[in-house]
Please model this.
Amino acid sequence: MEQIKLIDLPWGAKGLEPVISEETVGLHHGKHLQTYVNNLLKLLPGSGFEGMPLEEIVKKASGGIFNNAGQILNHNLYFLQLRAPREENRPVGRLAAAIDAQFGSFDAFKEEFSAKAAGLFGSGWAWLSADPDGKLVITQEPNAGNPVVKGLRPLLTIDVWEHAYYVDYRNRRPEYIASFWKIIDWDVVEARFNA
Ligand code: MN
Model:
């Protein structure tokens, strides 16, 4: 049975500096994500969702259970796809070929994904997902939304809730998005694509 708990960060609290500070990681993982975990653990008993895999809960629940389960799934996907900054950081392998085929080039994909992340009004997430035919799609999801609800397979995401960037970038969301490309662990995204 899948246990609902706070994930460990493979790269440590300072592992994303200077793109994302230790302070932001501490708040984002240690406070925000921890709170979603605590809330869900309080809501699950007697709900009918107890013992269900997180993704199933997100697909089937609504209200507070959906919001907290969605935020846990989203943050797990977000944090586990990051690594220490690299100036030259691009996808490789089958995923790189699929991005080129679908969007024309990696730069064109980057531009579209960044525009969707910057243009999302309020709190939410931008996603790269695969549809059931393996076609790549970029979507915006408000609040706790996750593309699994639409039958898509999430590959890459950026959290554009203010808590993800406000300590480091203040109101400059586009700067956070521009820096985000340095810390994507493309090996993880590739593994999700090939899964
Ligand atoms: Mn967040």
Observations:
- The chain has two domains: 22-79, 93-194.
- Residues 28, 32, 75, 159, 161, 163-164 surround manganese (II) ion (CB under 6 Å).
- The first strand starts at residue 124 and ends at 130.
